[in-house]
């Protein structure tokens, strides 16, 4: 980019060019040498490329030189004759002829006197290869880093004997005894620079880079610069592409490098900074690349070094080669770098008095100690207050004292601070050991400053950030090699820091600065002074008064003589720059004060008087009065259109209705939901972390408080959002009919009354520890003032309020308060001291990722980046614009009224423009010339839009006036003009003041109520959103916007009055955020708003785009943007633009806003193709309107030609009056053939016929934004990283950069990376509330319960956080809720109709005698067995075929019904529950040592298993008291059992056993709350392979570990072992306690076997009308398991019951089920088992399913009692993992998990069927469940002929009924004499089953038999023993086996048919 820029400095170094030129002239009489400057400017780039290739390191500066001068350079002698050494002299190697040691090792710590301009170098002697000899050589005879610029010849001194003046190297080499045999050459022998390291020792430094020799890198440079990048400024075209590496974040805006040809001193670092002509090190390809980029980007000031010899070379150097042109090497002393850093940073306008200057000066005006007098009439003459930036000044730290007219100057320390910061850069490298990396020198800083100022455009303002970047870039370029070396290798010896006594000659710096400034057309003037800055300031004031600096914007004053330090200051004298800078130095409070003062004292009257002189017809007010009188009684025809139809539509019931107006329903968008979920996951991660900072499990509900800034509109808006979101109802905080007062409890306006409300919030949080309070701090960037450092805390309680409330100790320490900061501009909360962890930041997600639309929405967010994009070329209608004519007028008035603040001038000018535009639109067409095109466009569209809608909907114009007094002035003036023009009913003017609500006139309130269908008589709009569709000007005041949202009818966002000096990122983005908008996605917005042309043609035809009408407005605004962009930008309001460039006529038709006529519409119809470049075709015929803007005509020409379309003013006015009409009728277009369509102002013609409401476009187009030029340039320029320049500004007023040495923000950074960037590079100011955070003692300083949500303005953050509250509440409820099975009991209609019922309804316990008479109900009622076989008990019970409800097969596996229940305080919990109370119970208690438990073996023999059973107990230390151990030895003997007679209520007598598998996390084993804290014995029964994982999760639970043979067994095995173990233990306890005298029958015989999913227990309370009454009422409540168990255990005669259980809970339970308190039926899930009575009844250890039904039937048939307490119920939680689901049936052979269907579970014996890896019993049960009809075909749906099942119950599927009989003698069986069975099932039958037993039963003919045995052998034996072949027919093919391999012991079955 930069290379083609005319007049740029090329890369050749200045010295080189200069010396080449001089040398050429000395050498040749004939040749006319090229002038130096033409070489500098125009020389081709070859050197550059050569340079890049060669890459010699830049010699940044030579360290030792302290002065210049030194002996005259000499030409080399011809001689190669080596003279013999004089007699008697020393000839020892390493010593000089005088005998002094020259070896580096000897001299390294010696002080050596080096004359000014000389350097110490190391010479290599061939005879001493390991040593260097120290020599002092005049640096002019040494090369720079490129091998250039060494003068021929030699000048050196001997450091040993001190002899000086060696003019020939030969002579010198003899003196130091080099003993050479060849011609001595300095290039060959002077090898290294010598430098002092950190300890002051002299060491070998970098190689001297003789041309052609290997490159050398200089190790140190004394100049450290802080900001190297010259940032290209907005207008600096060439520079704009810059640095490929992200250089720290300054605002790269102004290319310092310059277009001037100034001699960029020979300073390399300058070279580096201003155009990296000199590279540091060819060793890095990346760097070369970087350099290429930079070079191309930079205007190369080529001469970058500072001449150390100020005059031309001596004649004797006539023979210079062009290669070594300059004697002045780049390495001139940077010594200044460490010198006096500037001194006081205080910003007093009057520096301290009594400073003593150096000595009296000859300059007549001022003696050095005297004050400098500021001339009295300075402001009148200069038209602006000069701003003096202190630079480097006075070694004593004193700036000259100013006296006199001090009000007319401003003194600032900003530049001094910038210099200071840039001196501190090298600290960043101290940790690398780079102590010698020196800061940039002061001279260099000053020179770079001059370069920077020189290249600033006339309308640019210098930025300190740019300068810092330039310093940094320069420093980096000069140190790249060293930095790289320090990073890669151990530090090498470094040169000493330059001594303070190395001045630059008095001529040098001013001369170079002057040279730099010489090309800039006087915009920078350099004043050199001899003794003190006072004389320079005095001289400057003199020149200002004499008017000699009229064209000068900057005066640089330098004093650089006779003392080591230079003094300097920079005065800004340009009127534009000085005004902006001086105003930017005011704090917001001072700014408000200044403006108020000017308004109160009447200073502004002069401005009003001036305006009145502008109008040729006289004062505007006079014109207005005249107009008012003329039009009293009738409204101008141009306006009637809007009012007449409108009023009709208001009053008449059948008024036309506009379809465009629809207030959108509130709904959550996908983005908001995504953000809410991200917030939730962050809260969960805080809770999940090990820090225990948030215990979500302990909260039952959510409450919240939203804190917002003190803006009434924001307050009402937030109330509205909270109300309509329904969040209060969802959180259960309010009931259905809540009042507004109730909602106000949840929103806190941070004003004077806030403290009381906040205290009650804190109190509330303290009183409700189980409520999680979310404290939401919305608009969180607003008030960050620290309460501690606040000086005015006492006087103004509002200052520091946020800090006092939100950061108070109570909030920080409350464990139930989570703070959420919400903001669009989080930068000030992302500092080094922030309280918010980076992990707790949530950023609004990007809508696209890798081109995929992540959250499809029907609206597209249009924010800052899209606005900027709309300004790029190719976009027909930029939405960001500036108004050049307005800016020109402001600038002109600024010069005329220098004492007025520019905010006052800008406001008055803009108000005047609006007033003139209103008058022009109302018919006073001559006023068009007194407004700008932009303002006219806005006003026309504002007034005309309502006429295009049958309901009168219009558009909103936002006029931003930050200063309250000025806003009031603007409001009064505009309201006055509106009244005089009789426009009060056409549009409203609203003054938006943060501290008060909105006031809208009655007429408009009536309209709004009608549009929004509001009935309430008292309703008034309270938020800007409620002004939807109201034509109005909203004057938006207040220093900052406070988050107010604006309606979709906002069409223009006029920000021309924002304080353009507020150049910080937050302030800028906050103002631009006002325009952020959602546009409809349905109409694709081609890159921005342009192309509205997408409207359908028909629509176009029919509509008059109000905005199209835009009249003159059309061509206007954008024109102003920078020249490049101007062409396309025609201001055409973007909306109107609905065709982005409606056809020409339309455009100008717009002019007459009528556009009505056919032609215009026709054109419009065609318009799409006119878009883009063609728009210029818009109305070629029209005359350009010369005064379109106040500026010179050129301004207009910038509008695209379309502008021409504006007809000339006179007619225009009239047209305007017509504007409205849509009828094609008479088009009176006065000026311009091209717009025949304008319509005559005939009132009748004005009724819009096919108009288009402005609201239609509103949803498709974002508003048009007008900005001040300065801000526009800042926003649209990009820095080197590709980001808008505004992004690299200081992020907020309340923070400062941690260092100038920071990289630039990069375009590719995500929000998270930006946050980390600001966290690293910014620190809060002392006034910031986070300032003291690091001092709190915590290393990280982050608050654990604090989150930050950031997202673009107006994108929907409020909706997102309200949604977050909802889902957080739902999650907490979910944490306290559980899904429990909720199913009706099945087979109710099959219940036994017995004569006996248990009718004593109020009995708490069953009466044994009564209970025995109850019949047993065989039918299964548990809904989980819905697909199980019915059990027939009585013929009567089976009514018919359909007696069994059979579900459709597809329903069988349908999801079981569940209900969500809130966990009560008596629930059982899984491992996720943590609370204080049960920590100890779970073993996570400090006093409980984790995992401290012992393993005990316990063995008993059991005959059925045929072997001894060996079980293991894991017993935690805390539970050992439940067991008995042998003494000594500690062997486990038994588990203690209580006595039947014990009545204690402190514990539960029955041990509880819970068999479990696969549910170590999810099993409900925490019974602490369920038992209500009562002591109980709870044993988990686990499989061996799961022992470790269960022990890990439940370290404090007793485990019973099953033997390994049961690893693949089902629940039957666990139940079997539990029961057998318990019986064995009962025996042991009886024996043990018998010895203590206790009877065996007194030992408690019950145990509880509970499922691992039992979660809660309930009791039914019955209220009976009377003892026998049939009437009763009942209710169910939750109770503890302790209550249930103690009630059951207290039952009288309890030991007579074998099994006790309870109902399964169901919400559908009817009174019939609870009417009878007890039932004799099946019990499941939670049973109390009497192990004594059931000693001889076993569970079947092989069973997987229905083992409880099987056991119940055995117990009943054994004559024992099963009792179900119907008044108790158990709730079972749905757990999706573990349990029986953990059995997967897979193929044993193949690895691929192919689904295996149940039909494949059996096969023919000896077949090649695939064997399955599953227990045989499981395969059998599964097969019978699904395919038993293959064995029992007659039984299918044949319930009157069940299958006879002997001694077992197997589930044969729901369509087959079974009849259970027991073969045991004396067992209770049903009478089977009436049954004819359809099948017989014999499963593993034992010896009790005999042939005679079977003969009792009758079977149908064709009934089937199935015999199941362990092996084929026993199968045959069974057939023989039972004599089955007598009645049953068997075939060989009827034999089957389960699909198991032989080693897995398959089960075999044989089937047969009854004969």
Structural write-up:
Helix 20 crosses helix 44 and helix 29 runs parallel beside helix 31. The protein is an alpha/beta fold. The N terminus is likely disordered. The chain is built from 55 helices and 56 strands. Strands 34, 35, 38, 39, 40, 41, 42, 43, 44, 45, 46 and 47 form a 12-stranded mixed β-sheet that branches. It is elongated. The protein starts with 13 loop residues before the first helix and ends with a strand. It is 28% helix and 15% strand. Helix 32 links the parallel strand 24 and strand 25.
Question: Beta fraction of the residues?
Answer: 15-25%
The total beta strand count reads 56
Classify the oligomer. Answer: single chain
Low-confidence stretches: 1-13, 29-81, 213-368, 489-504, 640-655, 1083-1250, 1439-1453
How would you summarize what this structure contains?
This protein has 1955 residues and is of the alpha/beta class.
Layout of strands and helices, then pairs:
Layout: H1 14-27, H2 36-42, H3 46-54, H4 104-107, E1 118-125, E2 128-138, E3 156-158, H5 169-175, H6 186-189, E4 190-196, E5 202-207, E6 265-266, H7 268-274, H8 285-297, E7 372-374, H9 378-382, E8 387-390, E9 402-404, E10 410-412, H10 414-423, H11 442-454, H12 464-488, H13 508-517, E11 524-529, H14 533-545, E12 554-559, E13 567-572, H15 575-584, H16 588-600, H17 605-614, H18 620-631, H19 637-651, H20 670-688, E14 701-708, H21 712-725, H22 727-730, H23 740-744, E15 747-749, H24 754-767, E16 771-778, H25 801-806, H26 809-813, E17 817-823, E18 841-843, E19 848-849, E20 852-853, E21 859-862, H27 864-869, E22 880-882, H28 884-896, H29 902-921, H30 933-944, E23 956-961, H31 964-980, E24 988-992, H32 1002-1011, E25 1032-1037, E26 1050-1054, H33 1065-1072, E27 1077-1080, H34 1097-1102, H35 1106-1109, H36 1123-1126, H37 1144-1151, H38 1158-1166, H39 1193-1198, H40 1209-1218, H41 1254-1258, E28 1264-1267, H42 1269-1276, E29 1295-1297, H43 1311-1321, E30 1322-1324, E31 1346-1350, H44 1357-1375, E32 1377-1381, H45 1408-1413, H46 1449-1452, E33 1458-1462, H47 1479-1482, ...
Parallel strand pairs: 7-9, 8-10, 11-12, 14-15, 14-16, 16-17, 17-31, 18-31, 22-28, 23-25, 23-26, 24-25, 26-28, 38-39, 38-41, 39-40, 44-47, 51-52, 51-53, 53-54
Antiparallel strand pairs: 1-2, 1-4, 2-3, 4-5, 8-13, 12-13, 19-20, 21-27, 29-30, 32-33, 34-35, 35-40, 36-37, 41-46, 42-43, 42-47, 44-46, 45-47, 48-50, 49-55, 54-56, 55-56
Helix pairs in contact: 7-11, 7-12, 10-12, 11-13, 20-44, 21-44, 28-29, 29-30, 29-31, 37-38
């Amino acid at each position: 980019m930069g290379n083609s820029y005319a007049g740029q400095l090329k890369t050749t170094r200045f010295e080189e060019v200069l010396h080449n030129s001089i040398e050429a002239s000395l050498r040749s009489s004939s040749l006319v040498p090229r002038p130096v400057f033409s070489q500098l400017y125009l020389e081709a780039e070859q050197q550059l490329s050569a340079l890049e290739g060669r890459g010699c390191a830049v010699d940044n500066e030579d360290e030792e030189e302290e002065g210049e001068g030194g002996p005259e350079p000499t030409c080399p002698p011809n001689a190669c004759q080596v003279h013999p050494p004089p007699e008697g002299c020393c000839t020892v190697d390493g010593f000089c002829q005088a005998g002094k040691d020259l070896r580096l090792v000897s001299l390294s710590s010696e002080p050596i006197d080096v004359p000014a301009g000389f350097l110490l170098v190391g010479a290599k002697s061939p005879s001493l290869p390991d040593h260097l000899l120290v020599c002092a050589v005049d640096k002019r005879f040494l090369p720079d880093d490129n091998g250039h610029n060494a003068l021929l010849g030699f000048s050196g001194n001997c450091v040993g004997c001190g002899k000086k003046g060696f003019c020939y190297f030969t002579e010198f080499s003899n003196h130091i005894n080099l003993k050479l045999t060849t011609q001595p050459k300095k290039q060959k022998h002077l090898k290294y620079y010598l430098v002092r390291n950190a300890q002051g020792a002299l060491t070998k430094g970098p190689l001297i880079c003789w041309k052609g020799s290997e490159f050398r890198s200089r190790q140190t440079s004394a100049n450290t610069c802080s900001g190297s990048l010259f940032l290209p400024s907005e207008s600096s075209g060439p520079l704009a592409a810059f640095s490929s590496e992200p250089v720290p974040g300054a605002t790269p805006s102004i290319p310092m490098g310059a277009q001037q040809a100034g001699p960029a001193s020979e300073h390399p670092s300058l070279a580096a900074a201003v155009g990296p002509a000199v590279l540091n090190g060819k060793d890095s390809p990346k760097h070369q690349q970087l350099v290429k980029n930079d070079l191309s980007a930079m205007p190369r000031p080529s001469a970058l070094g500072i001449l150390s010899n100020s005059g031309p070379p001596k004649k004797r150097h006539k023979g210079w080669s062009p290669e070594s042109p300059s004697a002045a090497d780049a390495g001139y002393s940077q010594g200044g770098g460490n010198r006096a850093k500037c001194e006081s940073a205080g910003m007093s306008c009057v520096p301290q008095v009594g400073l003593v200057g150096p000595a009296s000066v000859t300059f007549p005006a001022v003696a050095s100690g005297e004050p400098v007098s500021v001339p009295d009439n300075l402001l009148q003459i200069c038209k602006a207050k000069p701003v003096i930036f202190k630079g480097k000044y006075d070694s004593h730290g004193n700036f000259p004292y100013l006296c006199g007219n001090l009000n007319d100057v401003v003194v600032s320390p900003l530049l001094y601070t910038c210099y200071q910061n840039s001196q501190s850069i090298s600290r960043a490298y101290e940790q690398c050991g780079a102590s010698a990396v020196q800061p940039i020198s002061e001279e260099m800083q000053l020179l770079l400053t001059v370069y920077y100022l020189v290249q600033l455009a006339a309308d640019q303002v210098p930025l300190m950030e740019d300068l810092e970047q330039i310093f940094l870039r320069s420093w980096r370029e000069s140190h790249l090699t060293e930095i790289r070396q320090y990073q890669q290798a151990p530090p090498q010896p470094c040169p000493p820091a330059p001594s303070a006594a190395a001045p630059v000659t008095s001529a040098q710096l001013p001369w170079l600065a002057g040279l730099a400034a010489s090309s800039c057309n006087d915009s920078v003037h350099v004043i050199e002074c001899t003794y003190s800055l006072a004389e320079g300031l005095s001289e400057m004031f003199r020149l200002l008064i004499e008017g000699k600096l009229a064209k000068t914007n900057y005066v640089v004053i330098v004093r650089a003589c006779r003392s080591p330090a230079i003094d300097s200051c920079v005065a800004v004298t340009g009127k534009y720059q000085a005004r902006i800078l001086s105003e930017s130095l005011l704090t917001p409070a001072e700014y408000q004060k200044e403006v108020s003062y000017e308004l109160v004292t009447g200073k502004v009257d002069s401005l009003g008087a001036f305006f009145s002189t502008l109008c040729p017809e006289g004062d505007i007010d006079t014109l207005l009065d005249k107009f008012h009188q003329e039009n009293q009684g009738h409204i101008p025809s141009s306006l009637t259109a809007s009012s007449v139809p409108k009023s009709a539509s208001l009053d008449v019931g059948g008024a036309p209705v506009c379809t465009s107006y629809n207030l959108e329903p509130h709904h959550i968008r996908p983005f908001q939901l995504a953000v809410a979920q991200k917030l939730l996951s962050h809260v969960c991660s805080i809770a999940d972390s090990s820090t225990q900072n948030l215990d979500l499990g302990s909260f039952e509900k959510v409450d919240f408080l939203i804190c917002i800034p003190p803006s009434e509109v924001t307050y009402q808006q937030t109330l509205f959002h909270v109300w309509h979101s329904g969040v209060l109802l969802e959180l259960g905080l309010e009931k259905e009919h809540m009042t507004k007062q109730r909602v106000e409890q949840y929103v806190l306006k941070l004003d004077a009354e806030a403290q009381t409300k906040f205290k009650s919030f804190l109190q509330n949080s303290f009183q409700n520890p189980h409520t999680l309070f979310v404290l939401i701090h919305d608009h969180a960037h607003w008030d960050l003032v620290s309460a501690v450092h606040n000086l005015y805390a006492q006087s103004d309680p509002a200052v520091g309020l946020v800090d006092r409330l939100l950061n108070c100790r109570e909030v920080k320490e409350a464990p139930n308060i989570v703070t959420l900061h919400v903001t669009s501009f989080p930068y000030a909360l992302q500092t080094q001291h922030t309280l918010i962890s980076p992990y707790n930041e949530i950023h609004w997600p990007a809508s696209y990722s890798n081109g995929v639309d992540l959250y499809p929405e029907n609206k597209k967010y249009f924010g800052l980046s899209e606005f900027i994009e709309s300004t790029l070329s190719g976009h027909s209608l930029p939405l960001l614009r500036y108004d050049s004519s307005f800016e020109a007028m402001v600038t002109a008035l600024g010069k005329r009224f220098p004492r007025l603040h520019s905010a006052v001038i800008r406001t008055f000018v803009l108000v005047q423009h609006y007033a003139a535009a209103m008058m022009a639109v109302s018919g006073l067409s001559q006023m068009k010339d007194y407004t700008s095109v932009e303002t006219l466009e806005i006003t026309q569209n504002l007034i005309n839009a309502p006429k295009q809608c049958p309901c009168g909907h219009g558009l909103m114009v936002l006029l931003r006036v930050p200063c309250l007094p000025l806003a009031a002035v603007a409001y009064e003036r505009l309201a006055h003009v509106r009244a005089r023009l009789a426009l009060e009913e056409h549009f409203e003017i609203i003054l938006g003041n943060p501290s008060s609500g909105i006031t809208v006139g009655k007429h408009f309130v009536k309209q709004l109520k009608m549009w929004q269908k509001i009935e309430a008589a008292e309703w008034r709009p309270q938020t800007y959103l409620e002004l939807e569709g109201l034509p109005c000007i909203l004057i938006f005041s207040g220093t900052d916007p406070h988050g107010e949202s604006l309606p979709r009818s906002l069409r223009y966002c006029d920000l021309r009055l924002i304080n353009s000096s507020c150049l910080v990122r937050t302030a800028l983005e906050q103002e631009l955020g006002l325009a952020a908008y959602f546009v409809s996605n349905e109409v694709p917005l081609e890159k921005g708003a342009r192309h509205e042309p997408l409207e359908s043609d028909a629509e176009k035809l029919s509509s008059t785009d109000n905005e199209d009408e835009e009249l003159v407005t059309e061509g206007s605004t954008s024109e102003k943007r920078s020249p490049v962009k101007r062409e396309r930008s025609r201001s055409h309001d973007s909306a109107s633009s609905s065709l982005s460039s409606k056809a020409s006529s339309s455009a100008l038709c717009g002019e007459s806003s009528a556009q009505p006529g056919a032609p215009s519409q026709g054109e419009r119809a065609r318009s799409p193709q006119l878009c883009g470049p063609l728009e210029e075709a818009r109305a070629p015929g029209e005359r350009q309107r010369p005064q379109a803007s106040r500026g010179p005509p050129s301004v207009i020409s910038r509008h695209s030609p379309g502008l021409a379309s504006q007809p000339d003013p006179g007619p225009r006015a009239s047209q305007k009056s017509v504007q409205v009409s849509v009828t094609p009728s008479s088009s009176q277009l006065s000026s311009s053939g091209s717009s025949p369509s304008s319509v005559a102002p005939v009132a009748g013609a004005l009724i819009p016929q096919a108009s288009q409401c402005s609201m239609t476009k509103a949803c498709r187009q974002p508003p048009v934004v007008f900005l001040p030029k300065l801000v526009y340039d800042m926003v649209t320029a990009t820095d080197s990283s590709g980001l808008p320049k505004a992004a690299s500004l200081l992020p907020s007023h309340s923070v400062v950069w941690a260092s100038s040495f920071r990289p630039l923000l990069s375009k590719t950074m995500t929000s998270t990376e930006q946050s980390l960037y600001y966290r690293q590079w910014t620190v809060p100011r002392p006034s910031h509330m986070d300032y003291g955070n690091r001092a709190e003692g915590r290393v990280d300083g982050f608050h654990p319960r604090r989150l930050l949500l950031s997202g673009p303005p107006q994108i929907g953050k409020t909706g997102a956080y309200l949604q977050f509250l909802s889902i957080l509440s739902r999650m907490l409820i979910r944490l306290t809720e559980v899904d429990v099975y909720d199913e009706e009991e099945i087979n109710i209609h099959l219940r036994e109709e017995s004569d006996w019922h248990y009718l004593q309804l109020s009995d708490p316990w069953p009466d044994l005698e009564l209970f025995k008479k109850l019949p047993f109900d065989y039918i299964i009622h548990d809904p989980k067995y819905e697909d199980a076989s019915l059990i027939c008990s009585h013929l009567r019970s089976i009514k018919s075929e359909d007696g069994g409800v059979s579900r459709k097969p597809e329903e069988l596996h349908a999801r079981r019904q569940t209900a969500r229940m809130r966990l009560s305080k008596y629930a059982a919990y899984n491992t996720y529950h943590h609370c204080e109370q049960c920590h100890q119970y779970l073993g996570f208690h400090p006093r409980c040592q984790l995992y401290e438990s012992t393993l005990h073996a316990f063995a008993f023999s059991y005959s059925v298993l045929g072997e001894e059973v060996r079980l293991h107990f894991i017993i935690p230390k805390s539970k050992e008291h439940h067991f008995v151990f042998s003494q000594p030895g500690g062997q486990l003997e038994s588990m203690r059992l209580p006595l039947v007679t014990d009545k204690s209520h402190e514990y539960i007598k029955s041990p509880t056993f819970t068999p479990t598998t696969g549910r170590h996390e999810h099993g409900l084993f925490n019974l602490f709350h369920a038992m209500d804290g009562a002591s109980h014995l709870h044993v988990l029964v686990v499989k061996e392979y799961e022992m470790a994982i269960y022990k890990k999760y439940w370290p404090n639970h007793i485990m019973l570990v099953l033997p390994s043979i049961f690893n693949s067994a089902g629940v039957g095995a666990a139940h079997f072992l539990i029961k057998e173990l318990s019986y064995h233990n009962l025996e042991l306890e009886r024996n043990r306690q018998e010895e203590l005298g206790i009877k065996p029958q007194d030992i408690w015989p019950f145990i509880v076997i509970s499922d691992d999913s039992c979660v809660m227990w309930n009791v039914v309370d019955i209220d009976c009308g009377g003892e026998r009454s049939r009437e009763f009422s009942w209710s169910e409540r939750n109770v503890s398991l302790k209550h249930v168990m103690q009630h059951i255990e207290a039952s009288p005669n309890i030991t007579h019951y074998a099994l006790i259980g309870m109902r399964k809970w169901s919400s559908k339970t009817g009174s019939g089920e609870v009417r009878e308190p007890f039932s004799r039926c099946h019990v499941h899930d939670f049973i109390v088992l009497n192990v004594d009575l059931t000693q001889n009844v076993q569970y079947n250890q092989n069973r997987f399913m229905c083992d409880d039904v099987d056991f119940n039937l055995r117990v009943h048939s054994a004559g024992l009692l099963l009792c179900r307490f119907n008044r108790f119920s158990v709730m079972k939680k749905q757990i999706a993992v573990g349990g029986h689901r953990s059995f997967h049936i897979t193929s044993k052979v193949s690895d691929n998990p192919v689904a295996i269907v149940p039909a494949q579970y059996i096969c023919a014996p000896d077949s090649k069927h695939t064997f399955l890896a599953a227990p045989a019993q499981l395969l059998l049960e599964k097969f019978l469940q699904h395919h038993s009809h293959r064995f029992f075909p007659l039984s299918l749906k044949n319930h009157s002929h069940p299958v006879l099942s002997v001694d077992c119950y197997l589930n044969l599927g729901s369509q087959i009924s079974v009849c259970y009989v027991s073969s045991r003698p004396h067992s209770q069986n049903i009478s089977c004499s009436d049954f004819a069975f359809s099948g017989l099932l014999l499963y593993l039958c034992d010896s009790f089953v005999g042939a005679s037993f079977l003969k009792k039963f009758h079977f149908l003919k064709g009934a089937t038999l199935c015999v199941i045995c362990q092996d084929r052998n026993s199968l045959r034996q069974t057939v023989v023993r039972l004599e089955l072949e007598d009645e049953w027919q068997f075939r060989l093919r009827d034999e089957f086996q389960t699909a198991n391999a032989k080693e897995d012991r398959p089960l075999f079955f044989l089937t047969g048919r009854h004969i």
